[in-house]
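Thread: quick sanity check before group meeting

JM: Hey all, I'm pulling together slides for Thursday and realized we never actually wrote out the predicted structure for the chain we discussed last week. Dropping the sequence here so it's in one place. If anyone has concerns about the input, flag it before I start.
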Amino acid sequence: MKMLTQFLIVLLFFAVLAPVYGGGKGIRFEETAWSAIKAKAIQENKPIFFDAYASWCGPCKWLAANVFTDDKVAAFFNEKFINVHFDMEKGEGLELAKLYGVRVYPTLLFLTPQGEMMHRAAGSMPVENFLELAKTALNPEKNLAGMMKKFNAGNTTSQFAYEYFSSLSNLYVDYKTDLDAYTSKLTKNDFCSKDNWNILRDYLQDAESATFTRLMAEKDKLAQTLSKDTIDKKIASIYIDQLMKSVRMRKFSQKTYDSLRAEYVKAGYVKDSDLETTTDFIVAEKTKNWAVWTKTAAKIVATCKEPGELNRLAWTVFEKIDDKDAVLQAIEWSKKSIDITENSGLIDTYANLLFKSGNKAEAINQEKRAIARAKLEGTPIEEMEETLKQFQK
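JM (edit): ok, ran it. Output follows.
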């Protein structure tokens, strides 16, 4: 009897897990090599749906549990597609992530049987939106491959071009080459038109692109159509974006950053004060220059009304900075976040900072307060209870 009970428990365990990982109810995902997936898709003449996920990704898990298991979704996808999912940080997923330019999770790819791109999207979404996405992917007039075909044919209006670059941007597809190709065919008057300015305003981000070089050459004529201040602000935003890219490089180079920064400030479109609380601030954290970081953070806090950002800054001090004055400052930042909106996470940060400052008694009081608040919110309290035990030792 005991063995039968254990067997039933095991069956129940796998029955619960099956929908989340693709077995049983829901989309049927093929669990085999990529080459075999394509071979099967070619044999059955079906396109491929490819769920590109990461094991730690919350939205990926939500999709798997709440959307992939839906009866309507399962019926549609199992009929229309060969379905596959790969962890993009393991095994074949590593190379497939490079092949398909997967940079965010989840990325949802719709491919021809041969593995060529038809359509793509990123992020989680409810059932109806997911079904609509799949229908768009199957429609050559609306999917990404169809839009690319129209664009590459060269008969693009400014309205279509705007929609095209908007789609590529939303789908996390690099469009720098296409934007350069589009603007290279424009006459001077067309380049400076209001319709094409909308494209430049919303989608030109690369200071090293041919389109940006042309913008700099045509900025005076553009200013006649718009205003000098409008053009200058756009140029400044592109310079700041370029500096952000430099900062976020996996192998950050202080020399490269300093060189670009000096060049952009000298050009006159950005000021030292513009960069102090943006890219310089990120560099200070990246290089662990905590004295500069703390000084700049205090300036940001002075005008900040976003509790999440205040909490992030305060928690950074708790995790990374031992200077007593910095900790005392962070306590004030944390109090400010709670004054704006009270929740258990913010109070927990406050309690941890109090403990770090040496105020053990008040830290215990505030952690108890955080736990009480979490119970009202329905928020898990296990970690907070463990923190309280540490405070009480």
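AS: nice. Strands lie at 29-30, 48-53, 82-87, 107-111, 117-122. Residues 2-21 form the longest helix (20 residues).
JM: adding both to the slides.
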